[in-house]
Design brief:
This protein has about 550 residues and is of the alpha/beta class. It has helices at about 15-25, 115-120, 135-150, 155-160, 180-190, 235-240, 290-300, 375-380, 390-400, 445-465, 530-545; strands spanning about 5-10, 30-35, 70-75, 80, 245-250, 250-260, 265-275, 275-290, 330-335, 350, 365-370, 405-410, 420-430, 435-440, 470, 510-515. About 20% of the residues lie in helices and about 20% in strands.
Length: about 550
């Protein structure tokens, strides 16, 4: 690690890895900081009860259970200090590559209408629903770049039903799984359009990496063939190959430093050296924060000074508001024939029929079949209401019905709520003495209405497909976040109702940027990672253009 760089990028996930690559390949010196470790496939545990899909007893890529608390305020106003595996923590992977090392890798573009929700629906009372300051057409070239440079498998013709597209996908779709023909026939009988699920997984060898080997443990785990495409095996190696990017892991950014005039000049971090934490300050011409919507907010709020007493980007108390993830709704159907062949990733068909244009609700969401569901997860959350989970009847249910069930679900487009908040708690600190995150608030009622609507459509789809029995589940009103966290530093033109401009540059600063899901004004009715990647390419290009 040198004393100064052209740029410091905090966070190596979907956004940070891309920005580091774009800047390094443009000839800039870059320091890429990651608070977690670099982990290979063999180092990421395959424990079915300790992972980011089912973290009942911990996770497999950090944070460690000790030394990384968060504070959560529940709906009754009660305060809880949580560890990373506990509900309400909103955990994401702490590892090189961030969530992209262990995600399911669904690679959806947001729909054109997602960028102008307020124009279409108005602004529900109590919400902060707004249009984006950019359009789908402005982001489309960067979606295309992400699909090709990171690597997406899907069918161009079928995807073109829903998006204006200029270029095919670089790889054909993943092969069919047993539920797909059954669900496709049912959807078409209902007049619904369907398509294969786009995934950041190699259906064929691509860019020197193997194709998917269908291990069945995609989501929550690393990939045995390296055929799942994340920042750790695509853009970060490219950045390092330039010789201009230094990657430092186990480096926790404590604060963004400013000079006597309030101008950003670098980052102070805690770095592990010979097993011991040491503080080090590094200077840079610009800083890009890509820690995810929760940790990015934490870092900016902890970067207080005389000029910025409430932290950077928080002059109007808007930083940390509008936390969004996704409420997930769906249903399970019991079929006559086996729907299980054990070949991953499992997810194979989706309908976007209900993302918009639904009478009486704002927005919507997609429905798709599920990834290969681990038996423990099916047992934990897939049983019908009232079904016993212990004893011979539970064992019989698992033996007979696990392989004959189809699970259809999807994310709901959340309506932003300014009271869904990320703040910093002044009394609780992490292992390095840094103030931790405090989470509070709930989802907006309009989000709950959409969830109820979409749940009924999932039931209808399964019944039409021939399910002998179907069951579903409710949802709470609590905060969402986790791996789909977004919205806390939204981009916009109104400095009082946004944190950055349309290029991810923090209002009032010419050298401080954000490149992660924090920028999202709305979070779409589908997985957000491809939008994070597209915006990161755009932010990176904007920085390069302003550096000339």
């Amino acid at each position: 690690m040198k004393d100064s760089y052209d740029a410091i990028v905090v966070g190596s996930g979907a956004g940070g890895g891309i920005v580091a690559c774009v800047l390094a390949e443009a000839g800039q010196t870059v320091l890429l900081l990651e608070r977690g470790k670099t982990m290979s496939y063999t180092q990421v545990s395959l424990d079915h009860v300790r992972n980011h899909r089912f973290g009942k007893y911990g996770n497999n890529t950090g944070p460690e259970l000790e030394g990384h608390p968060r504070v959560f305020i529940d709906s009754a106003g009660k305060r809880h200090v949580l560890q990373p595996h506990q509900g309400g923590y909103m955990n994401n992977a702490m590892v090189e590559g961030g969530g992209t090392l262990i995600y399911g890798a669904q690679a959806w573009r947001f729909l054109p209408k997602d960028f102008r929700m307020a124009s279409i629906y108005g602004t529900p009372a109590g919400s902060s629903l707004s249009d984006w300051p950019i359009t789908y057409d402005e982001l489309e070239p960067y979606y295309e770049r992400a699909e090709w440079e990171i690597g997406v498998s899907c069918d161009h013709t079928e995807a073109s039903q829903f998006w204006p597209r200029k270029k095919p996908f670089p790889m054909p779709p993943m092969e069919d799984r047993p539920p797909r023909p059954v669900l496709r026939k049912a959807a078409h009988s209902l007049g619904w359009k369907t398509m294969p699920v786009p995934v950041l997984i190699n259906s064929v060898p691509y860019n020197g990496r193997q194709a998917c080997v269908h291990c069945g443990c995609c989501i929550g785990f690393a990939c045995p063939s390296d055929g799942k495409n994340g920042s750790q095996n695509t853009v970060i190696p490219r950045a390092l190959a330039t010789g201009l990017c230094d990657r430092v892991t186990q480096a926790m950014a404590e604060r963004i430093d400013t000079d006597s005039q309030g101008k950003v000049i670098g980052v102070t971090m805690v770095v592990m050296i010979d097993g011991q934490p040491q503080r080090k300050s590094v200077r840079a011409k610009r800083v890009i924060v890509s820690g995810g919507a929760i940790e990015t907010t934490r870092l900016l709020m902890n970067s207080t000074s005389t000029h910025h007493p409430n932290g950077l980007g928080n002059e109007h108390d808007y930083l940390g508001r509008n936390l969004q993830g996704h409420v997930y709704v769906g249903a399970v159907g019991y079929m006559q024939d086996s729907m299980y062949d054990g070949r991953g990733p499992g997810v194979s068909i989706a309908t976007l029929q209900f993302n918009h244009g639904n009478p009486g609700v704002v927005g919507g969401g997609l429905l798709a079949d599920e990834f290969i569901k681990l038996p423990i997860i099916f047992w934990n959350s897939g049983f019908p209401p009232g079904e016993k989970k212990w004893g011979l009847s539970a064992k019989r249910f698992m033996r007979e019905k696990y392989v004959k069930c189809i699970h259809v679900q999807g994310p709901v487009q959340e309506i932003p709520n300014p009271e869904a908040r990320v703040q910093v708690d002044p009394t609780v600190r992490d292992r390095y003495g840094i103030p931790v995150v405090k989470l509070s608030g709930k989802i907006h009622q309009a989000t709950s209405d959409v969830a109820d609507f979409l749940r009924e459509k999932a039931m209808l789809w399964l019944k039409t497909a021939g399910a002998e029995n179907t069951w579903t589940w409710g949802h709470g009103m609590g905060l969402t976040g986790g791996q789909h966290q977004a919205g806390t530093a939204r981009m916009g033109n109104d400095v009082k109702a946004s944190v950055t401009d349309s290029w991810g540059r923090v209002h009032g600063h010419d050298n401080l940027y954000i490149a992660d899901g924090s920028l999202h004004v709305t979070n779409g009715g589908m997985n957000p990672v491809l939008t994070i990647m597209a915006l990161a390419f755009r932010v990176g290009e904007g920085i390069v253009a302003n550096s000339r």
